[in-house]
Amino acid sequence: MAMDTLYEYQIWQPEEGEDDINFAISNSHLLPCDCFLFHLRFRHVLQSNHSQEFHTLLNSSLSSSLIPCDVFLASGSSILIAVFSGTGVAQDFLDAAVPDVLSVAADIVCNPLNAGRRIFPLAVSVLVVSLYNEREEIGRVLRESSEQAFKASPACASAIEGLKNLEIDVHGELLIGECRICLDELMNGMEVTQLPCAHFYHRECIVKWLETSHLCPLCRYAMPLS
């Protein structure tokens, strides 16, 4: 899959009233030591390279945890790597973000405005944007199909005939995108044919494609073989 990935992140001390901070602060007298209330907001989206407005959410999570300040400041790197490991972020992101998080955490503890606190809210928001190049991917599939034509297997006729047609209806939008086979524009109100994987094309384009290959040009979803 032809993709580049971009990372954006923010680190800040949330104000009282955000998320579950009030609950934690109201019970801070029960804590045996000063703690960071660490919030992680994570989102990963797939964005088409031809339009920044069209994207698909791949993954999102919101987690909070209490971490003793002395432990976090002493072993923060390993703690953060463990926390981020479940999100699948790249090592380059960890190399850049982890020192920044630790720096902000140290500043929060040393800030005179936080004197007397038992709970130190610390929030990190991460946005991962994977850029999907449809033209490059279609070109790759077409090249592979041409080079390995003898391996291609057409979809069965009944599966092709059973494909559903639908009318594009997106309020306020005129240009929707492109048919990923012929690369002609798709306009609002135009009738298209949708595969079970939810990708849609001009009917004549996808029928001709499936008569040669049973795989969706974009995601390789396998239609029934003839």
Overview of this protein structure:
By secondary structure, the chain is α+β, with helices and mostly antiparallel strands. The chain folds into 2 domains: 130 residues, no CATH class; 71 residues, Herpes Virus-1, CATH 3.30.40.10. The protein is 31% helix and 31% strand. It contains 6 helices and 9 strands. It has a 4-stranded mixed sheet with strand order 1-4-2-3. It starts with a strand and ends in a 16-residue tail after the last helix. About 2% of the residues have low confidence.
Write a brief structural summary.
This protein has 6 helices and 9 strands; from the N terminus they run βαββααβααβββββα.
- Whole-number radius of gyration? 25 Å
SSE sequence, one letter per element: EHEEHHEHHEEEEEH
Let me know the average pLDDT: 79
Helix/strand structural class: alpha+beta
Q: Which band does the percent of strand residues land in?
A: 25-35%
The number of domains: 2
- The helix content is 25-40%
Q: What summary fits the major beta sheet?
A: 4 strands, mixed
N/C terminus separation:
27 Å
GO molecular function: ubiquitin protein ligase activity; zinc ion binding
Keywords: Metal-binding, Zinc, Zinc-finger
Enzyme class: transferase
Domain RING-type: 179-220
